[in-house]
Specification:
The chain has 464 residues and is mostly helical. The protein has two domains: 343 residues, Farnesyl Diphosphate Synthase (Orthogonal Bundle), CATH 1.10.600; 74 residues, no CATH class. 65% of the residues lie in helices and 0% in strands. The C terminus is likely disordered. It catalyses: 2 (2E,6E)-farnesyl diphosphate + NADPH + H(+) = squalene + 2 diphosphate + NADP(+); 2 (2E,6E)-farnesyl diphosphate + NADH + H(+) = squalene + 2 diphosphate + NAD(+).
């Protein structure tokens, strides 16, 4: 029901959500027929539907290379993340992973759910990898080798200092940025970006994920995963797990804000990297995740709920980002909006308030200097939207019409189903909508609708 409430509070999310849902359906139909490629793209849709959607923007050869790059690194990450694998087994696998991608017979059982499927049937990924162009293979092999070595290093090493934190994030995400820049260059569509800017693109995303995933990582079984640097959290508590205790809420939020401020220092580099991209499809592929993660940081900042539950952008806002992000001015506008949102949450009593403000002012200045902020569509609601009953009726009509259009069932069945549901609940709620006799669609002719019916339709279409 949370998605229903979100739609009622933010009715302008509806259109982007419908477009996103239809785009995802279209993407799922683009899976290649060859068994190994079908496996790779099907699994990609299961482990990251949003990534699988954005990757469709790319041309076929680059799309295939990025798909395999993602799955190889996801497999490497699955080995690193599995805390049940003994260190003496895990480290050699990480160190040799770049060679395993050339072996059609290699596999290793670990991970859970879709990730276990990936590891058990890794031969499909290897087969697809061997069909890529040599320049793509070399880029993927190089990054996999460097990442595996870095992960192995931190299996036996704690993240103590901020420098350690930057180094760890470089190995697990900054190298992804470097690898993607190499793939873009190998495709002939982009100049080779600098390592510094490519690294920052990865670090910005990874640090946001580490902040957002605190509770999941600290509660990991059989052993906690601790990526927050001791140099930061030790200023507030004696043990990292103490941040989730209610009695430490004030200190926890201050530590959180310290971590968010650290992540924000990479935003200017990200803007420089994206502003240099020339290919529209590659631009969108890079820009959409950056905007979503900036929005996530804005939601996490000064938010105790990071230590209580998962905090992320609502689905409708993510759909808006995907729908609106076409050019660099769109990125400047989004970064500007989320930076303003974050700035409004800064507590002057926070020990890092001055530093946070300075970092945000730098981001805001970069966006203002672009000269593209006029007539922008804001991602931030200045006031709470209100929904009168007739607006809800209109939204229901649009949703039900779309359901009737997209459904594979017979039209008569849809009409009877809708009519049955409407009749079933008409007298259960005290509020009744006006008769919709002036509408022409047969499903709605002379019907009355209730809140409960509307919620059922919303739920069936949007909570997935």
């Amino acid at each position: 029901m949370g998605s229903v409430r979100a739609i009622l509070r933010h009715p302008d999310d509806l259109y982007p959500l419908i477009k996103l849902k239809m785009a995802m359906r279209h993407a799922e139909k683009q899976i290649p027929p060859e068994p190994h490629w079908a496996f790779c793209y099907t699994l990609l849709h299961k482990v990251s539907r949003s990534f699988a959607l954005v990757i469709q923007q790319l041309d076929t050869d680059l799309r295939d290379a990025v798909c395999i790059f993602y799955l190889v690194l996801r497999a490497l990450d699955t080995v690193e993340d599995d805390t049940s694998i003994p260190t003496e087994v895990k480290v050699p696998i990480l160190m040799a992973f770049h060679r395993h991608v050339y072996d059609r017979e290699w596999h290793f059982s670990c991970g859970t759910k879709e990730y276990k499927v990936l590891m058990d049937q890794f031969h499909h990924v290897s087969t697809a990898f061997l069909e890529l162009g040599r320049s793509y293979q070399e880029a993927i092999e190089d990054i996999t080798m460097r990442m595996g070595a870095g992960m192995a290093k931190f299996i036996c090493k704690e993240v103590e200092t901020v420098d350690d934190y930057d180094e760890y994030c470089h190995y697990v995400a900054g190298l992804v940025g470097l690898g993607l820049s190499k793939l873009f260059h190998a495709s002939g569509k982009e100049d080779l970006a600098s390592d510094t800017l490519s690294n920052s693109m990865g670090l910005f995303l990874q640090k946001t994920n580490i902040i957002r995933d605190y509770l999941e990582d600290i509660n990991e079984i059989p052993k906690s995963r601790m990526f927050w640097p001791r140099q930061i959290w030790s200023k507030y508590v004696n043990k990292l797990e103490e941040l989730k205790h209610e009695e430490n809420s004030i200190k926890a939020v201050q530590c959180l804000n310290d971590m968010v401020t650290n992540a924000l220092t990479h935003a200017d580099d990200c803007l420089k990297y994206m502003s240099a991209l020339q290919d529209p499809a590659i631009f969108r592929f890079c820009a959409i995740p950056q905007i979503v993660e900036f929005g996530t940081l804005a939601m996490c900042y000064n938010n105790i709920q990071v230590f209580r539950r998962a905090v992320k952008m609502r689905r409708g806002l993510t759909a808006k980002v995907i729908d609106r992000t076409k050019t660099m001015p769109d990125v400047y506008r989004a970064f500007y909006d989320f930076a303003c949102m974050l700035k409004s949450k800064v507590d002057y009593n926070d020990p890092n308030a001055r530093k946070t403000k300075d970092v945000l002012e730098s981001i805001l200045k970069t966006c203002r200097d672009s000269g593209t902020l006029n007539e922008r569509k804001s991602y931030i609601n200045k006031s709470e939207p209100t929904c009168n009953p007739m607006l809800i009726v209109v939204v229901f009509i649009i949703l039900a019409t779309l359901l009737a259009y997209l459904s594979t069932a017979q039209p008569n069945y849809i009409c009877k189903f809708c009519l049955a549901k409407l009749n079933q609940f008409t007298y259960k709620i005290g509020f009744y909508g006006k008769p919709l006799s002036n509408l022409y669609h047969p499903i709605f002719h002379n019907m009355r609708i209730t809140y409960e019916v509307r919620n059922q339709v919303f739920t069936s279409m949007l909570i997935k």
